[in-house]
Amino acid sequence: AQTVTQSQPEMSVQEAETVTLSCTYDTSESDYYLFWYKQPPSRQMILVIRQEAYKQQNATENRFSVNFQKAAKSFSLKISDSQLGDAAMYFCAYRGQAVTGNQFYFGTGTSLTVIP
Amino acid sequence: KAGVTQTPRYLIKTRGQQVTLSCSPISGHRSVSWYQQTPGQGLQFLFEYFSETQRNKGNFPGRFSGRQFSNSRSEMNVSTLELGDSALYLCASSLVSRITDTQYFGPGTRLTVL
After folding, report:
1. Nearest C-alpha in B relative to A48
2. Nearest CB to A103: which of B3, B45, B98?
3. B48: distance to nearest CA of chain A, Å?
4. Which residue from A17, A22, A13, A16 is spatially nearest to A90, judged by alpha carbons?
């Protein structure tokens, strides 16, 4: 089965600074998608950013960008100019094709604290 | 468009009882997935329904079941509740069930089993 590992249970960052959340995954598939989801204290999961494995260019959404290293099976999330509203649990997720039945696999999450 | 809605938001049950949770997807979405979220295990995939058919199933016992109606609304049922079933149950919908589809999550149902 596919596995997604987030090795940092907790992270903190000063407001306006940059923080990077790590994620590694294990797969034998060549075509898949990777996602970062944010879950604020209100509990509604929100998609932050996604990356198609066949694209070499790293995805970017405003202050959020990823560093996708396909050979290393690494997918980190960089948050620039951190804001108080970025405080949340962040989940890395993998979605593959036939082998995994298209289902999502999530990491255990990283709790991000933003310090004013 | 209205987002994914889940009812009820909070539920308290006792061991041995059964429970039914409901999920209404975003209008036009035909795929609904269910997840169990616990502090130690993170999000665990339960099952996915697409056009009233179960498309995928995670590694959960048969006490966990679900169904989807013709209007894409979905229900999840847990029978013979155990203490370990206490969790946040999240529902997510997507347009269809392609690998490219983004899942949109509901606020969840917090189930407490006493």
Report:
1. B102
2. B45
3. 8
4. A22
Planar angle of CA A62, A67, A71, nearest 5 degrees: 155
In eight-state DSSP terms, residue A44 is -
List pLDDT tens digits, range B58-82.
889 999 999 999 999 999 999 999 9
Could you give the CA distance from residue B24 to residue B38 in angstroms, rounded to a whole number?
A: 22
Q: Classify residue A22 as exposed, middle or buried by CB count within 10 Å of its CB (0-12, 13-18, 19+).
A: middle
Give the pLDDT confidence of A24-83 residue by residue, as tens digits.
999 888 888 999 999 998 778 999 999 999 888 899 999 999 999 999 999 999 999 999
Structural contact between residues A67 and A74, judged by C-beta atoms closer than 8 angstroms: yes
Distance CA B66, CA B59 (A): 14
Burial class (CB in 10 A: 0-12, 13-18, 19+), B39: exposed
Minimal C-alpha gap between A54 and chain B (Å): 12
Instruction: Give the Cα separation of A89 and B105 in Å (integer).
Output: 14
> Any chain B CB within 8 A of the CB of A3?
no
Smallest CA–CA distance from B102 into chain A, residue = A47
Tokens 């082998």: give the residue. A99
Is residue B98 very low, low, confident or very high in pLDDT (cuts 50, 70, 90)? confident
Tell me whether residues B107 and A47 touch, CB distance under 8 A. Answer: no
Listed in sequence order, the DSSP H helices in chain A are none
